Amino acid sequence: MSDYCASRFKAIRRPSRPVPIGNLTIGGGHPVRIQSMTTSLTQDVEATLQQCIRLAEAGCEIIRITAPNKQAAQALKDIHKRFRAAGFDNPLVADIHFLPSAAMEAVEHVEKVRVNPGNYADKKKFAVLEYSDQAYQEELERLYAAFSPLVKRAKELGRCLRIGTNHGSLSDRIMNRYGDTPLGMVESALEFIRIAESHNFYDMVLSMKASNPKVMIQAYRLAAQKMAEENMAYPLHLGVTEAGEGEDARIKSAIGMGALLYDGLGDTIRVSLTEDPWYEIPVCTDLARRAEALWQQNASLPDRTQPECIDFYQYTRRDISSMELGNGGTIGPLEPPRVIIPAKHPLTDPKTIIKKVIDAHNTLSDLRIEGLLVELNSTADIAGLLEVQNVLAPSLQALVVDLHPSLSTTDLEPVQWPTTTTWILSRSFQPDETAALEAWLAFAAAKGMVLAIDAGAEAIHRCAHILGRSDPAQILYTLSHFSLLTHPAGNYRLLAHALMQHHLSSPLWIRCTEASHILDEPHFGAILMEASMFAGSLFCDGFGDLISVETEPDLARATTLAYNLLQGTRMRASKTEYVACPSCGRTLFDLQSTTQKIKDRTGHLKGVTIAIMGCIVNGPGEMADADFGYVGGAPKKVNLYVGKQCVKYNIPEADAMDELVKLIQDHGKWEEPAHV
Prior knowledge:
By secondary structure, the protein is α/β, with parallel strands linked by helices.
């Protein structure tokens, strides 16, 4: 059993205190609330009002507006008044960075104020300082004096506060004591919570946002655990910050938030897209619907607790044995996960399968189908299987054969299996099929094949003595049919724990199938959401060495989704990685058009990470693992970064793109596009 959630195998919603925000309540068993944020200049009251109205009409329940200075905070009064006059009662939230004076003005006008503990009354200079215990305590006393007036006024007015930690804007004091870590993020928030509680103020919500889903997941888990230790039960606002735009941003958001929703964590959510804010609402709605359905489905499951062999607060990939595949492919502890794609077509028509794979490869450009999964339902399919192998083997690392349970080793013994192909035979096993398992292990070993054992944790426990005698380089483990006693991710968590408990080091293949879906919705948006929530949560826990997305019939789209999911979990870089903020009233250039221009110039740089930030608030911090940064420094001026270090200041926006390219060239990361 973990100490951050009730169960890792049954999705039990974390109990949280109800926090009122205007006419809504966050937490306390209420529905997951959906949020977004305006992108207009706050002082432009009419533009901001119209964005608030459009967001409310799109289904946004809570609307946040930046207040970077006192003048912007004063504008909230008119915005709030006119929004109410237009007939909308959605709570408004002021987003505050740096200035307590802006917070004190904003709290007079809106239902909620978000403060960032990393820069509220703290200046971030990236100074290298050592804080003695006395100096640290003096800093806390200074924070107490700076934050207490807001707490007291919020209490008087019946407002609530969000203590919103960002990985990218931890204070120097926190950085020097805890480092750039999830623990530092949590401690930063807890300092502010303790100040508020000293004034008997409890209407607070917490967030632990990061652009890296792994860091974000670990921080929220640690926040839940630390709060439980201190008898706190504040609601959690979930979000992956600076997610970017398009499919990548939706995947990254679903990975981070999905993993936490599986754990029962989350009371309100925001998807941060570099798009117009109303496009965030359908994504939030899809996530919230799945969370509510998951919690409802799991409510009737029996309680299940089980220790696990992992650290929930620090990413470590499960240690595995290496396995050589065809065409130079390798599965191993230092290798990225491999991509397997199913050919959803009967082997009685092999030419159609061949054509679909060739067409997909032509569409995919430099992405490859590394393993092709086909279904062998009877001996009548063998001729078609061999024809597929004969044509496609040169372009594949492995041919994966999903065996019908009725087929036996005797049925396949007469086949002349080409030894130039890496064959992976996948068969499901029940816990009592020990004889069949031994027979298939012997057959695969004799033929130089790999056996993918499709079995749950119970079968692994029962057959561990057999599996321990086998060569781990000739076995894969996977799961395509799930026990109804736990949720889909929980089934794989139990399987991974069983493998680690019995020191079985063969790789693990994550299969996204219809059985792994929370809701049965066949359109691509739902497939993307389900695969990201399910497989993403497992990869972020360190489980998974192969992946297959088996619910998308289009081979090219299924392949692209698998690669993008691995990119979102930071498991495999197949293209340029962008960390882009969603824009707000602080943004100093047109973020959407600028992001697209940067992508057009740099999108071919595989393995390079570029951060695109509208302002300095989270810029340097969220570029912790970015290679280069493009950050708004002043109106029409751009600062360029290498990592966290600003190397060029106040470049005219018209010249900034060329300067970014030159910077990438100077650091040896530039390659000319293939078409040049």
